[in-house]
Design a protein that fits this description.
With 365 residues, this protein is α/β, with parallel strands linked by helices. Helices cover 38% and strands 25% of the residues. The radius of gyration is 23 Å and the shape is elongated. It starts with a strand and ends with a helix. The model has no long low-confidence stretch (mean pLDDT 92).
Length: 365
């Protein structure tokens, strides 16, 4: 007996990788993996293959998107002629890809079951549901929970998240023209972590309310977030798979022109595979804070995909932060609380604010 695990691939490969990471160890072995993709999603397929080298054997099938009958026939023929020996289970995971691809891949699996009755093939399906309160859940077609929180057991590797989503992290050079018209080159470093001295400075400035600088403000946010995650991991060992970074430089992968400006993220936390971007600004003006929020929404989704979250830590009043957050929610058309604006009232209870945020928004406890 064995399982052929088929995963449909779309333009968002991160959840497909997450599903593969969990399913490959939870289905009847031996496991044979097949990625279903179109010509348009070959780059995503290739990135999945890069980070699935530990899965063996693995192959791919390219289909033509569009006509449902064509899609179903292509996959059916592929299954009939390339069904691994001793396959007794066809498992289709359909988080990625178009609706046509997902529906017709399942239909093709059902067709093969009917065409090969002597092999007694079971058909299973699964989906990664990001809407669960305690994190994205892996569920099957009958509503059974296969993995209750898919962030658990995942190495918090920021580079993998970025590359799966088509981006790369520093170090890399950035060429620009300064105010005098001179061509300059800036070396954007790799993501870094704060040392003890920097953490101490960050903690001190938030406790004492001393002289604020943008750098110390970022140090303080980083320190409060790190202390929060450390406390949670001590209470619950399976929440220890997190990493925290300061000054993360990001650009699209395979950029040949060094003058393409990268974007910079102040603080980035990786909780398993889900990221939180913290944008730090001493600004309090409505327009500036709102602009920071718009930038944070764009950048978090580019780097971390649909499950990413962002916080803008700023100097706005409590009334202003609520108004700005409501405006951003209305203008971006997203009802989920993917972005929060934290104003000056949170500065002196920042660690407690992070604790509440992680417990309620992420279900970490």
């Amino acid at each position: 007996m064995g399982t052929l695990l088929m995963l449909t691939v779309g333009t968002n490969p991160l959840p497909v990788w997450v599903a593969l990471h969990h399913l490959k160890d939870n289905l009847p072995s031996p496991i044979h993996v097949r990625l279903v993709h179109t010509k348009e999603t070959k780059p995503e397929r290739d990135r999945l293959l890069k980070y699935s080298h530990d899965v063996s054997p693995i192959d791919t099938v390219e289909i033509v998107s569009g006509n449902p009958t064509t899609v179903r026939n292509d996959i059916t023929q592929n299954l009939i002629h390339n069904l691994p020996d001793n396959t007794t289970c066809l498992h289709v995971h359909y988080t990625g890809g178009t609706k046509v691809m997902c529906v017709e891949t399942v239909a093709a699996a059902e067709s093969v079951k009917a065409l090969l009755p002597s092999q007694n093939i079971d058909i299973e399906t699964s989906y990664l549901d990001p809407r669960a309160d305690a994190g994205a859940t892996l569920i099957d077609r009958n509503g059974n929970i296969l993995v209750s929180d898919t962030r658990k057991g995942v190495d918090p590797w920021l580079q993998r998240i970025a590359e799966l989503n088509g981006f790369e992290l520093g170090p890399f050079p950035y060429e620009y023209w300064d105010e005098l018209g001179n061509n300059q080159t800036r070396n954007c470093p790799a993501p870094n972590t704060l040392n003890r001295e920097q953490l101490a400075k960050g903690r001190a400035v938030f406790k004492s309310g001393g002289r604020w600088t943008p750098e110390l403000f970022e140090y303080g946010a980083y320190a409060a977030f790190q202390d929060t995650l450390a406390d949670i991991s001590q209470q619950c060992s399976d929440r220890s798979n997190y990493r925290l970074f300061h000054k993360v430089y990001v650009r699209r992968a395979n950029v040949s022109d060094a003058s393409v400006k990268p974007f910079e993220l102040d603080v980035v936390a990786v909780l398993g595979y889900q990221i939180v971007v913290v944008s730090c600004s001493l600004a309090y003006e409505h327009a500036r804070v709102k602009q920071k929020g718009m930038e944070a929404i764009l950048r978090m989704r580019q780097l971390g995909g649909v499950e990413a979250r962002a916080i803008v830590l700023c100097g706005a009043s409590q009334e202003a932060q609520q108004l700005i957050q409501a405006e951003l929610k209305e203008e971006t058309g997203h009802s989920s609380p993917s972005l929060e604006i934290w104003g000056k009232d949170t500065w002196y209870r920042l660690q407690q604010t992070f604790h509440q945020y992680i417990r309620t928004a992420f279900g970490w406890s």
